[in-house]
Design a protein that fits this description.
The complex is a heterodimer of chains A (about 230) and B (about 325). Chain A has about 230 residues and is α+β, with helices and mostly antiparallel strands. Chain A is built from four helices and 13 strands. Chain A is about 20% helix and about 30% strand. Classes of the chains: A alpha+beta (about 230), B mainly beta (about 325).
Amino acid sequence: MSFPPEAEFEAIADDALVLRIGDRIDSRTNARVHALCERIRAQRPVWLRDLVPAYASVGVFFDPLLIEAGALETWLRTTLDTLPAATKKAADSTRIVDIPVVYGGDAGPDLESAAAELGLTPAEVVERHASAEYTVAMIGFAPGFPYLLGLDPALALPRLATPRISVPAGSVGIGGTQTGIYPRESPGGWRLIGRTPLVLFDPSRDLPALLAPGDRVRFVATDAGA
Amino acid sequence: MKLHVLTPGLLTTVQDAGRFGWRHLGVAHCGALDVAAAMLANHLVGNRPDEAVLELTLQGPALRFERAVRLAICGARVLARFECKDGNRHVVEAGRPVTLPPGVLRIGNLRDGARAWLAFAGGIDVPLKLGSRSTDLRGGFSGLEGRALRSGDELKLRAPPRLSCTRPRMPKWWIDPHFDERGLPIRYVPSQSPVELGGRAWQVSARSNRQGLRLEGAVLESLPGEEISAPVAPGTVQLPPDGKPIVLLADAQTVGGYPRVGHVIAADLPRLAHLCPGEIVRFQSCDAQTATRLACAARARIARIRLMTDKYVIDQPSRGN
């Protein structure tokens, strides 16, 4: 596996560009995305308005009065080139967030059917889902919605043919090879296997989102009453 | 000082200059779709440019207030009528600071444009959330409880300068922030994709909203290959598999998986806010240098209007918390 020799730039607005460093969803590319973001943020550039890490790319929103797009590309290319090739982030330097989840029942209406489809028992699905360690690859779709890398491939499930009109806040779902948590009630097509009582996004908190890009996440099975 | 919402209009929301610095958490920019128009409305009533205003969509609200207010309307042409407590009726002119005694302001259908911005001296008093008072409709927070106005709502105004007046006062001058650009193509910078937006007429879909302007017309050939979700921005033009382009607007999601064909230049982004459902729109490609030049020209135009009207505008209250 190798990174494209040349990072690709694409303007997505007059004041924003995307730096693409890979063309697949994998943890190594994504770790490099987060390392790059950390490096950019550490330099506190005055022109920086927003920095958006995604699976294999970074969105850079800048003040066009303070830097010109061409100069920004050069700056970003240099920053990327000086990034250590193998970003090996020690696990203990990253935040680990435990997410309590009530699996199955009303909290996870798709657990039974998902297990049947996967040829596993519901308990095995829960066991596999709760034993993995995930990384927040990016946040998107809605405020605080984490896209998690690290789902056991044996748990990959197609999305619902007809999305639900309303998915309760805190629902933990599987969509394709991804797993995630719905921060607020919304429509959604992922298979719901459980629910967490934690509030993923609250704009009045000091840290509005429970999870930040790059965080590590573990699901902890709990009882409904706990 | 409170505004009582008698009827809310089609989609009236509290907006300011938008949110910066939270996109990594999936938080959209939001803010007035034509920030320049909202800033000028603020300017006319003596507010800071980033104070919260009401954004009106296609049809305006009816508002009652019990004390005198100073307000200004910018954007689409509106038919605004004011009813004093004594029953006298007046037409309220747009593009200038208007001082009204207690009474009821009724704004009807918007004409020659889909949106207008209504600023009050002091600004709408809702709490700053993540650095902005803008309503995030998709995220369901900020502004007025994260939603559009409803009948029966009350909106507080931040302390404006004390006013007293018994009959409407409107100066004879007005500003017109827009060049007559209707019908001229929207300029965009194409990406490396082979798909061309220019050279054909598009119709603005009725399914357009603050998240995206949806276009209908000849279907474009969809681009091959699956895309990994990547950051997008207000202005980015997406091409979903159905071949109907979407120009993302201020409420756009932060990442998207559809192929992109380019982005609308900053100078023309506000013009998208004024397009009505069913209206025909054309696109014309331009390069990044032209985009920069036009953005500078647009800023200079606004700065000139502000300079020319500065002496008519009263003290600016501070932004506060």
